[in-house]
């Protein structure tokens, strides 16, 4: 075999292995490698991590995973009783002391109070090593029916409150001359368009623009954009619709098409421990779909033409594909 045949063969095998991994894994390949050979979650032991939206779902599961590894936590959200339940679960599964977990009742939409909340966390722990911007609401609505007020409200919560809190953190990092780490729970819908969630997709995409730019301005700052695919949480209950009043009210039942929030949180914690920039996770076909969409957008268009948009809706909402 000549040099060029050998090179061609290696490239061929490389692509075959990649495609097989896209089909088999429940995360991107970098995260899979870090899960097996990278920094363990335990490398975060003793750090102070602030998780917004820790009263349920992914934020709650992440808190429990991190607590098991001795991470000190600030848990914030609006439902204080649910935060207390998260705290008790964290304490039950770890050797943390009650003072290692701060419960902070906080509405992310009150941007003018962010600085006060921030100072309270710093006062309690003396520092904040990692800020996890996880609070957010999803959406189910047809693009053309969405009131502009909904676009604005969704951006207020999923984008502007995140940007505002992060600006306070970034100034704190600069003032105290340490690396710092900002984490954002984005979504697969932050990487590609999906049907039935126009404002949400726009908001999650906006986060990537904001945080990629931040990373360029502050190269030493660690920025992690974690992008889960469909995950079993209560998110459908409180999702926005096309009108400002009311919530979607659906249930995201456990299904082989959804990741458990525990697995999602484990992968997220691994991504944080390894300071990865962008990670994604989800059961088949999410990684395959994301890789094809990002690397071969034309193939994605052909696939969508063959399968129809309904196939994508079914992947996201197995139980309510038509609404
Ligand atoms: N589940 C999925 O399939 C999926 C997929 C991709 C991305 N995500 C993202 O994952 C993140 C967490 O969602 P989840 O699925 O875990 O849903 P969830 O269980 O509904 O969690 C949402 C969290 O955000 C908090 N929150 C909502 N509005 C808030 C506000 N105004 N102020 C403070 N906290 C607020 C909620 O707490 P309170 O109600 O107590 O305030 C709750 O803790 C979101 O950013 C979502 O976009 C989820």
TrEMBL record:
The cross-references to Pfam families, in alphabetical order and at most eight, read: adh_short
Q: Is Transmembrane helix one of the keywords UniProt gives this record?
A: yes
Listed InterPro entries: NAD(P)-bd_dom_sf, SDR_fam, SDR_family_member_7
Please indicate if the UniProt record lists Transferase as a keyword: no
Report the transmembrane regions from the record: 6-25
Q: Which UniProt keywords apply?
A: Membrane, Transmembrane, Transmembrane helix
Q: Which domain of life is it from?
A: Eukaryota
Annotated PANTHER family: DEHYDROGENASE/REDUCTASE SDR FAMILY MEMBER 7-RELATED (PTHR44269), DEHYDROGENASE_REDUCTASE SDR FAMILY MEMBER 7 (PTHR44269:SF1)
Please identify the protein, giving its name as recorded. Dehydrogenase/reductase SDR family member 7
State the organism named in the record.
Pseudolycoriella hygida
């Amino acid at each position: 075999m000549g040099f060029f045949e050998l090179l061609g063969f290696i490239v061929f095998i490389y692509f075959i292995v990649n495609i097989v991994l896209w089909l088999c894994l429940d995360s991107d390949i970098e995260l899979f490698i870090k899960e097996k050979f990278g920094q363990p979650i335990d490398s975060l032991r003793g750090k102070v991590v602030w998780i917004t939206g820790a009263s349920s779902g992914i934020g709650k599961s992440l808190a429990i995973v991190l607590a098991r590894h001795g991470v000190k936590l600030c848990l914030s959200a609006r439902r204080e009783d649910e935060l207390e339940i998260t705290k008790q679960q964290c304490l039950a599964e770890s050797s943390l002391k009650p003072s290692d977990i701060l419960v902070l009742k906080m509405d992310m939409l009150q941007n003018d109070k962010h600085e006060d909340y921030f100072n309270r966390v710093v006062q309690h722990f003396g520092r904040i090593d990692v800020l996890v911007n996880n609070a957010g609401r999803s959406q189910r609505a047809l693009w053309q029916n969405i009131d502009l007020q909904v676009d604005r409200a969704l951006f207020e919560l999923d984008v502007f409150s995140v940007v505002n809190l992060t600006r306070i953190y970034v100034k704190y990092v600069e003032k105290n001359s340490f690396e710092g780490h900002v984490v954002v729970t984005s979504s697969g819908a932050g990487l590609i368009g999906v049907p039935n969630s126009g404002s949400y997709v726009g908001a999650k995409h906006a986060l990537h623009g904001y945080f990629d730019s931040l990373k360029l301005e502050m190269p030493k700052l660690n920025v992690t954009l974690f992008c889960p695919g469909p995950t079993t949480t209560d998110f459908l209950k409180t999702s926005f619709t096309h009108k400002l009043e009311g919530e979607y009210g659906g249930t995201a039942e456990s299904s082989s098409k959804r990741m458990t929030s525990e697995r999602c949180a484990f992968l997220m914690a691994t991504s944080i421990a390894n300071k990865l920039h962008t990670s994604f996770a989800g059961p088949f076909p999410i990684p395959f779909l994301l890789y094809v969409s990002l690397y071969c957008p034309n193939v994605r268009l052909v696939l969508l033409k063959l399968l129809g948009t309904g196939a994508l809706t079914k992947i996201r909402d197995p139980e309510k594909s038509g609404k």
